[in-house]
Amino acid sequence: MSLSVGIVGLANAGKSTLFNALASRRLSETAPRPFTTIDPHEAVVPVHDEDFHRLCDLIKPEKCVPATVTFIDIAGLVKDAHKGEGLGNQFLGKIREVDAIVHVVRAFSDEKVSHPHTSHPVGSEHQILEDIELVNLELELGGIEKKPTIYVLNVDEEKVNQVGQLTKLIEEKFKGEVLAIAGKLEEEMIDLDNVEKAEMFKMLQWERSGLERLILEAYKLLDLITFYTIKGEKEVSAWSLKKGETALDAAGRVHTDFAKKFIKAEVINVKSLLDIGSWKDAKEKGRVGLEGKDYVVQDKDVIEFKVGQ
User: Fold this and answer.
1) Which GO CC terms are listed, alphabetically (predicted)?
2) I want to staple 263 with a disulfide (CB 3.0 to 4.6 A). Which of 46, 115, 133, 306 is the partner?
3) What is the DSSP string of 25-79?
4) Residue 194 in domain
5) Can you give the residue range of the structural domain that contains 249?
6) Does residue 209 sit in the same domain as residue 257?
């Protein structure tokens, strides 16, 4: 499934910093200048899924393949982009191709990094709302249809949990999900191992990183659910599927031949399978359902497709 999320924002908002953290590598060279990201970069990012990890622990396959979300770091927007200013034409062209938007808004203070589009104090409510309105206006003037949007407030580390009122205001005014993320800190955590990250989360009183929250919200924004397949002891895979799609659609996600030669689908919810302990026992207990091609796949279904020759 080629659904993708474009990361957009004004120059120096921290888009590339956020992208670096998402990609867990430093693909985007960042610098305090108006046009940092000239060519869009792409990162296929795994979706954190406890049920998937538990399923892998149960089956112990040779390979585990998680569901993913594709993020694209798009060239920084400038005022009058719809007239072709700066990288406007490239920007608008790439935005048309994505299915949803992560709009990064500068809400951090750094005297070394200029803000070329505001006369308000950086990090103030006025500046943040003005930035959002400017980008939305450029998209509208550029003929971009309204796309599902997550607004990411790129804040200083100490302010991650201090923007609740502003978050509510933005959600009401712009009708989108809002997350506060300390982009610079998230990027710095790229090089930490799992133990060090756990210690950092405990110190910051985080249940999960801002990036995990963003990836999960992007997955929801794209209206996706997850189903799983088990290939003997070789592979457990998580697959994304549009909510409301059928067993036949799911079969086609796994392999085009599965859709062409579809006979039936054996289905069980992953939590039921985990509780029972094995596919064999689940079948013996009558917990595995038999479904046809029109069955609407449910989130967290484990499916075994039966196909013809």
Assistant:
1) cytoplasm
2) 306
3) S--S---SSS---SS-EEEEEEPP-HHHHHHHHHH--SEEE--EEEEEEPPPB-T
4) yes
5) 244-307
6) no
Residue with tokens 């108006």: 34
Strands (E), the chain: 4-8, 41-46, 63-65, 68-73, 100-107, 149-155, 177-181, 224-231, 235-242, 262-269, 289-291, 301-307
Tokens 């060239």 belong to 75
Q: 156: domain CATH number?
A: 3.40.50.300
Query: Which pair of structure tokens corresponds to residue 287?
Result: 């917990």
Strands 224-231 and 177-181: unpaired
Q: What's the pLDDT tens digit per position in 154-194?
A: 998 888 877 888 999 999 999 889 999 999 898 888 888 88
* Token pair recorded at residue 97: 């191709």
130-147 in b/e burial notation, b at 16+ Cβ within 10 A? bbbebbbebbeebebeeb
In the chain, the largest separation of any two C-alpha atoms, in whole Å, equals 69
Nearest to 13 by CA among 93, 82, 76: 76
Lowest mean pLDDT among 53-62, 135-144, 174-183: 135-144
